[in-house]
């Protein structure tokens, strides 16, 4: 260890540690024997020659004076500490270097010049040795005292990342955290899991989000797929405004979060918003940016053959009246400029080929219509469907202005953010206005009040439809649209004279005109969200305080869906409104005792209680058909309105407490206990005698932290060493109204109302779920923080899971029942590693690596349940089976030769007509979970210039691609050129394909398949004509260039005349590249179905985007 | 109080579902039972029934037509789930002594179980729909015993029906009790004939015929047990809302088309549309597509889709026209079918009293024309291939019955499996070794959800494939 480093370390410890906390580092190998006292002066160990006196003031980057900064003559122990105003005076030699150090800030060295005044602004240091993090209930704790794994992300790393959904910006930054986007383009939901899936209920694996100590709801509400209208309006956490976030602490285990109650079983993401606390006087900050987006991965189409079949196509009416013109696949003629009648070819009467409803006879393509249109003059058949032209460059602008102020009585921060995003899909957008207030005031020396209030208004004129179906634009463009279709000519999307009544299209059999879809069939939204809290704190004595707090999160969202006349699924149009109102309100109290009984023992107790009230009220009304085209009002309904309502209520009362004990500042023990009483586990009066469900459940935790580096002598290069371990339980209840049986209303038949009984069986004997977690970890820092490692192992058992819909044989009359069973075991490792390979005055290089691996296994169900389908789509199901991994995917597979003695063992079996044969039973395709995940960040700082790059690596796991299935079937993907080298004449070489596999012979042996299929048949049998999803399974391993940031802080000396501080400019790129073996799609994808994000299944979602942005921030 | 932890009464109220309807009356359940079951049969008809019986053929996505049937769980799931409502209706009407509702529920139970067992064979019956009492894996009963139950339910219904409460919510007969009685007995005749190869049903059939006052049966087309759909969503004929392209994947089968052309039968204009090409050239003709061609041949047959007939307009966009409402109905049982049943029974000596076979047969043909809302040509009954001949009686009856059961669910398939009339040949590119399926395989879900019962049934009945005949077909 160089003397230099050792000195820096020493000074940091001596100065910062000595002044600010009682921690004493026993670095006995060093020659510092006199520990600093609290007098504000360092006792010199040796006297240097004092030649002159220098003075000055030390401030932080916001010009706030810093008291207690160590000021030391380099290479000596001569030094002092700044006073309350940050000022210092020191006798120094004529020449030399002065070292300024302070905990939490980067140590700076100043070479003495001629001036005797040194005014210095210090820069915060993210890698300081003893961070304080915000833990459960908003209690700030030194990390060394924690017996469990936490990881912090600074707000500064988020507000420049410019993700519309801030949750996405956690990807790759925290070990053990996996983020999965919904395939929904702008402002969509994200699925976050920490340490893998623990619950068999696939929707119950997300962590709890807590803002300023109060939980917010992260519900994904109302994405009802009915009538092919799957939509994602974003989940709760997606609305958090990065500009207002000070820091995020991820509490990974149940261990970390027993005090938050049930929902914390999957970890907690604790968000602390910015306040005005550290400001002096009034300050104004501005952060503004603009981001441009384009698709990261698009399917690669063959650009050779157009729409049609067997090489033939000619448009007459786009519904089968021409030559193959009802077909929507691209197995047609070569797009070599030959003349073919098309939808956009001119006609003898001056119309377009597709204008097939010119006569108002209520029919499409009637003889009269066709006569009015005239005959089509063929035009050159050339490549169209150019996705690059279809997608716009998405533009997001974001501006945040905040005003902060503080004096000795209080502080405030008021912030306004406006975000405006135009999606890459035409006519999709989102606007978001966020107002945030964070203010505190000391009413008396003992009584203080703090409040945070956030109002978010999100509006959108159109959010895109999702998933596989006609309403989704991706379904058309990525799967079906004929390769020759010129998109430009689709833009004029009404048939002349039939405006608002009949769309103009290239195909009238299956699809909607894409621009008609996007500009007429819109899904708008106007959501108001208000969340915040008020907290009163009274300090009875220096060691006893009481806090009372009320927090609420109110969401009121109005969504309107318009469907124009002539829409494929809605010939008479339709109009639907959804009002989604949900809220969560928490009241809590907390009594805190913090007392050190002697130098050896510290002691703290927290006692608290909470009442959580959740409400939901969703109303949906639909006019299934409209009377007058173009008027979207319930007054314009053609048929009776259809409506549904859901009203939900739940209350959880809780009492809890924790005890923290510290012994000689190197052993720390935390004990917690909590009891919840949940209304959701309370039997309604009508059925109270039918079971013995108990609504009370208790769960404790214990955690231990041992500071090895304080306890025993360590070599000098060991700066910090800790072992931690904890054991915790978390109980969990269920959704309200689990005990409801009864009847549901369905659409009436004329005047007859219709009801039918519910197909789910209730269970009146529910026990709360309990998950028990154990974790052990260790945290080491070497060479004064230049090399750090943190390793955690965890093991979690979750039992008595409440599975709301376990399938049973429908022959019992019921399709599902509530089962209280199951045991899932999760275990895994998390490794965090940071290092500073280069740490020069002007140049620094930092590396950070996060690595994690998780396994979840189904240990048992109870009774006869052996197999549970958690989710499914496109013939692929995600099933939990006893003894198998969670997240295993199953489907029908290829029949294979299973005789190990056969030379063809393992080969796929082909029928006597050349097609792959499906298995009768489901086979396991693999698991959607990765084997491991890693995030690698490199940052380089040269003077004021910073460059940081984040790579995100996922290894292992499978993904199913519906784009692959349909893209092959419809002859769209470039792979479908195999087998039509010169066209469709099978006698020509290169045309037709013999599927690789073997055919069963009458004698039971096999021989290689020789049956030649047409290209179309071959590419369709590759996924068994949609019956063999195994053919569309890929290794989901990928590496993503997740983030690149180049920042430049304009030197303050340049700004001195402008009265501007902290001006910095940064260039940010996100999702810049992806390397994977999955063709045509981003492997980091999922499906969305009825409000559930289904991992592992790609269902023709919106393409993920690559973005570039520039960001400017400064303060006044 | 804010922090009283378990305010029990408060919690009890909070967890009482404000959205739930805890009790209903029979009139609210009945229409749903009817709509659900009948819609399912229309969809079965479209998806598989019309195809396997070669009324229609597929030109795209030809798997079903080549007998790659996959998991056919729709009928099973729909019927068993709906039977839960039927059982509740039965309980409710027993509790209230509502004997007419009870009888209607029994008729539906009988009909629905017949559909399940005729499609799958041995199925859960005596232990079925008992999930509430903890029976999650009901055993499969033999088809023989299920038929005893079906016939008993119909007899009971016939006895119960009479003066009493008005049946409200009756989408079929608008509360006409006498018509329900006729349906109960007509269905009994259908099921007696169906098991006539296994059981001696003479006495039972004769008894019904002998006593119209005790056992009334259909006496005219006005008695047809069919559901007349509405003109507006969501109660239109289920196919009405299909996309054009999906509807056009199904075309007139060459088997039916050729037969109709051979008989010069005008009903073809209801069942199918003349080809687009022929309409354009001013000389409309009907062309059917052979069943079971591969993807390429099917689509290219006779020069492509323009040269083969679509399925009749009344079963699609025309379903909401006045005539469409008459023709495109949901089918339980019709008067023509009853007459063909009686003709066959008379021919086979299962009933022995007048009228004659010929009378029944000719009345059946006449009624069948009425069923399609088509005027029967005056000479139709004397045409070759129609004209009654004693020696050809069963073939004639079977053929006309097969025509008359166009688009009526799975009934034509069930009947064909029993009689083998008309003679059908599996499609050229079928993947079932030239055999036409005679059963649905059990839904795959039963293998995991009710494995033991499933295994027992398979051991008893034979391999779980669509080539294993059910009991009455063995």
Task: Give a verbal description of the structure.
The complex is a heterodimer of chains A (1116) and B (474). Chain A is 6% helix and 46% strand. Chain A contains ten helices and 57 strands. Chain A has a 22-stranded antiparallel beta barrel. In chain A, a hairpin with a 6-residue loop joins strand 5 and strand 6. Chain A is globular, with a radius of gyration of 33 Å.
Largest interface: A-B, 97 and 87 residues
Mean pLDDT of chain A: 85
Radius of gyration of chain A: 33 Å
Which quaternary structure do these chains form?
Answer: heterodimer
> How would you classify the helix and strand content of chain B by structural class?
mainly alpha
Helical residue percent band of chain A: under 10%
The radius of gyration of chain B is 24 Å
Q: Mind summarizing the main beta sheet of chain A? A: 22 strands, antiparallel, barrel
Largest sheet of chain B: 2 strands, antiparallel
Number of strands of chain B: 6
Topology, please?
The complex is a heterodimer of chains A (1116) and B (474).
Chain A: H1 3-20, E1 52-59, E2 70-73, E3 79-81, E4 87-92, E5 97-101, E6 108-111, E7 120-121, E8 132-134, E9 140-142, E10 150-154, H2 156-159, E11 177-181, E12 190-194, E13 208-211, E14 214-216, E15 245-251, E16 268-273, E17 281-295, E18 339-340, H3 367-373, E19 379-380, H4 387-390, E20 394-406, E21 410-422, E22 429-442, E23 447-460, H5 473-480, H6 514-520, E24 523-541, E25 544-567, E26 570-596, E27 601-623, E28 642-663, E29 667-678, E30 696-707, H7 708-711, E31 718-732, E32 743-749, E33 752-757, E34 760-761, E35 769-782, E36 787-807, E37 816-839, E38 843-860, E39 867-873, E40 876-881, E41 888-894, E42 909-910, E43 918-927, E44 932-942, E45 945-955, E46 958-961, H8 962-969, E47 993-994, E48 998-1000, E49 1006-1008, E50 1012-1013, H9 1015-1021, E51 1033-1035, E52 1038-1049, H10 1052-1055, E53 1061-1076, E54 1086-1089, E55 1092-1095, E56 1097-1098, E57 1105-1115
Parallel strand pairs in A: 1-7, 13-16, 34-37, 42-48, 46-56
Antiparallel strand pairs in A: 1-4, 2-3, 2-5, 5-6, 8-9, 10-15, 11-12, 13-14, 15-16, 17-20, 17-57, 18-19, 20-21, 21-22, 22-23, 23-24, 24-25, 25-26, 26-27, 27-28, 28-29, 29-30, 30-31, 31-35, 32-33, 35-36, 36-37, 37-38, 38-44, 39-40, 40-41, 41-43, 44-45, 45-52, 46-51, 47-50, 48-49, 52-53, 53-57, 54-55
Helix pairs in contact in A: 8-9
Chain B: H1 8-14, H2 26-52, E1 56-58, H3 74-95, H4 99-120, E2 123-124, E3 140-141, H5 143-160, H6 177-194, H7 202-210, E4 225-227, H8 244-247, E5 250-252, H9 254-262, H10 268-271, H11 276-280, H12 295-300, H13 322-327, E6 330-333, H14 335-347, H15 357-371, H16 393-404, H17 411-419, H18 445-449, H19 451-461
Antiparallel strand pairs in B: 1-5, 2-3, 4-6
